[in-house]
Amino acid sequence: MIAEVRDALEQVARDDDLDHAPAVIHAIARGARAAGREVLTLDDLTTIADELGWPP
Question: What is the top-level taxon of the source organism (predicted)?
């Protein structure tokens, strides 16, 4: 899950725009489903962001 989210966030950072915001949302959702989760909590998202060092 972290790798997919990292790739999507890096794409957003490279482009410096929100055109790829849906890619970030979809990457998080795919990762959650792969982990057997239907939803992620704010704590989950905070943990992902912390692990990825986001925001840079």
Answer: Bacteria
The model's pLDDT over 9-49, given as tens digits with 9 standing for 90+, comes to 777 777 766 666 777 777 778 778 887 887 778 888 888 88
Enumerate the domain spans of the chain: 2-52
Return the DSSP state at 40.
-
Query: Which of 16, 23, 34 has its CA nearest to residue 6?
Result: 23
Return the structure tokens found at 39.
């939803």
Q: Token pair for residue 24?
A: 């970030």
Distance (Å) of CA 46 to CA 6, 15, 21, 28: 13, 23, 17, 12
Q: How many CB atoms lie within 10 A of CB 37?
A: 13
